[in-house]
Amino acid sequence: MHPKFILFITLLVCSLSNVIAQVQDDFTDGDFTNAPAWNGDAAKFEINATNQLHLNAPAVTDTAYISTPNTAINDIEWDFFYTMDFAPSSSNFLKVYLVSDQQNFKQPLNGYFLRMGTDGSNDAIELYLQQGTTETLLIHGIDGHVAASTNSVSVKVTRDGSGNWSVFSDITGGTNYSLEGSATDNTFSATNYFGFFCKYTSTRSTLFFFDNIYVDAPFVDNTPPQALQVTIISANQLDVHYSEPVDATTSENELNYSVNNGIGFPSSALIDGTDKSLVHLTFANNFQSAITNTISISNINDIAGNTLTLAALDFTFYQSQPSDVLINEIMADPSPVVGLPVAEFVELYNNSTTPVDLTGWEFSDASTTQTLSSFTLQPNSYLILCDDANAASLQANGNVLALASFPSLNNDGDDLSLKDASGNLINAVSYDLSWYQDGVK
Asked: How many Cβ atoms are within 10 Å of 389's Cβ, its own excluded?
């Protein structure tokens, strides 16, 4: 055979080998029977409306597995997301087979799997070596990490060619991974399959979900973070939102932030305790009202060490003045009904030329005060405040902001007030019966 033809066949075989050597599936094609093909107890699984692989088995005590071919094991990263909508137990738990020489996970096999907790408050992510039917614990992760009544977790596992394993997780379901544990074991250095094994009772037979499967070479992040948005929290506080989790050392360096117009550097910069893509800034000087400022951001690293060299974001702080927002309409006595639901409400009107953030504002009558949740009221726009039980019925009439317990408005009169988040009085109205018992009106 001609040497060039031999070389072509060799390259083709290597290419085909690489095609089946890894697994990537987010189920957005609505199909798990090809590209890649998942096999096993396929009749017990489906792709649900949110494009996740979902166990939808009969309501009996049983097990179910689903697997797909994979030969990648050295210098590989396994990533996946799962939800167990219950607290695991010895009767209800999940095994994720990273490595298996057999397609059927119910039979004796050789490989490695993760088990998602079975011992109550100590429920953890654990890595096991399996030889036939013998299971040997290699890594016990963080106690309680998968003990919740609903566990939605992203998991990443790495293994190099020497058998060094590391298990990471984000128990919020994101990609801000924390190390669960590491171990070295090279008992097996080849694999044929990857997949999931579910053990369940009748009440848990539809409560397993899977998504974002990735088995391939470790992902290398070469993209610097971006400063996406700056949010005004108060007269001297800002939140900076990044496109990805950022490094604490650089993001908490006050000298990496500066605001013009004499504001200067923040007095503190703190990365959020939960969302590592969010940094809270506090300044010694207050922002001037209705003045456009620019915050300059520099030398911020992401977790991989990529650097945001420079970014600039504009923001305008506005301190609402009295009568900027008005209590424009009052429905104190909705019965008998005349073209509106049987629901008490008030309507607010933004009388200013600037959007107003109503977060933390207070609406009160003479005896009750309620705090408003997040809403930005645009200039010359209206907002209905009502009880959360009546929100749906009022949606057709405009923007609605529901209150947990809307003050009960007296039919014959009441004192209403609206204060901003700093407690400043913006508008007040005292109505009485004579306002609406008018024949002409």
From this structure: 12
